[in-house]
Amino acid sequence: MAGVSVVNERTEILSAQKNDDSFATLWEELEWRGLIHVSTDATALSELLEGKPFTYYCGFDPTAPSLHLGNLVQLLLLRRLQLKGHKPLGLVGGSTGLIGDPRPTAERTLNSLDTVAEWVSRLQAQVSKFLSQDGDSAMRLVNNLDWTAPLSAIDFLREIGKHFRVGTMLKKDAVAARLNSDEGISYTEFSYQILQGFDFLELFRQYDCVLQSGGSDQWGNLTSGTDLIRKVEGASAHAIGTPLITNADGTKFGKSEGNAIWLDAEMCSPYAFYQFWLNQADADVVDRLKVFTFLSRAEIEEYERLVAEEPFKRAAQKRLALEVTTLVHGAAATQGAIDASGALFGQGDLAVLDSATLAAALSELPQAAGAAGSPIAQLLVDTELVKSLGEARRAIAQGGVYVNNVAVTAEDQALAAEDLLHGEFAVLRRGKKTLAGVRA
After folding, report:
1. Binding residues for ATP
2. Which CATH number fits domain 9-244: 3.40.50.620, 3.40.50.2020, 3.30.70.1050, 3.50.20.10?
3. Annotated binding site for L-tyrosine: which residue ranges?
4. The motif 'HIGH' region: which residues (predicted)?
5. What is the pTM of this model?
């Protein structure tokens, strides 16, 4: 029954999505939302989007067990085209995932066949969540291992490799960056753009696919496909490169100390995911609403006004966090994240939070080990909420220390067994906003 309810909720989420009819064309809306950084002929693409249904695709390589926020940009672009009546292919690269596209600095670690196969299944399930599988424009999943594995190396070089010029390949940004690095680049990663171009050609042949989307940093790989289709089939195909999403200060969006914001709840909890969006800067939040939500232009412009006039209310951030967390994790998990956020700061009952949500919330805080009988003053020091036992006692005496939102009244008070939520967790608070966790 739980599986049925999840499917029903996902259907409801997809059914509520729509493009904004205040725009004359879908292309105009995509430009307003900041989703077009580079493309083949814009006029032709705008006409294509307004014409009869066509097939298009985006590829996702299983180089990790989960998709991340950069992939979400592509999934939402695919969904917007699907809402227009066009037919998406979600390609999860069982073959290209065995290689990985070149990174700017160093060679990728090659994963085992079994690992990649497992990750293919996981990513296919994630892609399927964001695109409708019903109706004339139903999504279709494809795996490039299906057409790459049967091809011999000789056949690949004769039929596909002969259409690529090494000089052109060397000019691709990712390749050029690696050639100029100490690491250099292997033939394995150098060949990636040929494989991606072959994907587009094969999808053109099998499904009459005429458009590929991807991040703008993939532009060289995207155009390898359009060029190959032109050379082999004498036909035109299109590509859209979305901008790399960055913060107002120019830093890469979705990265914190090198860690991606994953879409898998086991790799990034709904609470942490919700907090990520809630903490977006005023300078960034309107752009995030444009890219990551289906709110209308009128709604987003109203939030833009609120950011300018009442930034302290953080209305735009709250709506952004609500919309994107619901999109990715569902309404129940989102409400759990909201409840946890409120309860941590004394606006709800911590005891009603389930163990997983509470653990996720505390993982974002300074923590210390503790058990029933541990002096609270010492725990304040251990969690670095205060610098010394003397400061801890003064804070308690002044009525500014709380355990699970209950004021600590005695300087020598110890943690009680009933203070350990789920027998494991306690929340320390100093003042209104300074929090730490205790874990038995």
Report:
1. 255
2. 3.40.50.620
3. 57, 192, 196
4. 62-71
5. 0.91
